[in-house]
Inverse folding.
């Protein structure tokens, strides 16, 4: 993982959408939002909309994984618990987001989502790779690690 020369890390709060910046050492000490004082990491997927999705992608110094899903999609629902386990397992190493493509059709169009679920991984404000279809936890972890180490 790249670190800024001043070892600061930037992250968006899932509760109030404020962009936080703090020393990287604080990552391991349950950092809280400077604005709303909620925890920046909850161990659960972060629910985003079209606007907050962009904000997270552009203002996260950690890799950002997004699950583009919809409530009517059976495979998406089956995948939801796997994704929750994944969010728990990565802790404060990544941002794990979920976007409902039915409620946020603009984002689905902007990101050219053709099938769901689609998992897209972002780093440094740009898309690194994406994958369509649900998969078991070990394969998901493996896929993410592969994308990040190839960078
Ligand atoms: Zn906040």
């Amino acid at each position: 993982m790249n670190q800024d020369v001043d070892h600061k890390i930037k992250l968006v709060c899932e509760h109030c959408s404020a962009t936080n910046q703090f020393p990287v050492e604080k990552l391991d000490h349950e950092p809280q939002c400077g604005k709303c004082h909620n925890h920046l990491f909850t161990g659960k997927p972060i629910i985003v909309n079209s606007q907050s999705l962009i904000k997270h992608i552009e203002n996260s110094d950690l890799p950002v994984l997004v699950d583009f899903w919809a409530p009517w999609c059976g495979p998406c629902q089956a995948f939801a618990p796997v994704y929750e386990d994944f969010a728990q397992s990565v802790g404060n190493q990544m941002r794990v987001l979920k976007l409902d493509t039915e409620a946020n059709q603009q984002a689905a169009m902007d990101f050219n989502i053709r099938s769901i679920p689609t998992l897209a991984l972002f780093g440094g404000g740009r898309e690194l790779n994406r994958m369509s279809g649900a998969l078991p936890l070990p394969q998901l972890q493996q896929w993410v690690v592969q994308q990040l180490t190839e960078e």
Notes: The CA atoms of residues 70 and 100 lie 5 Å apart.
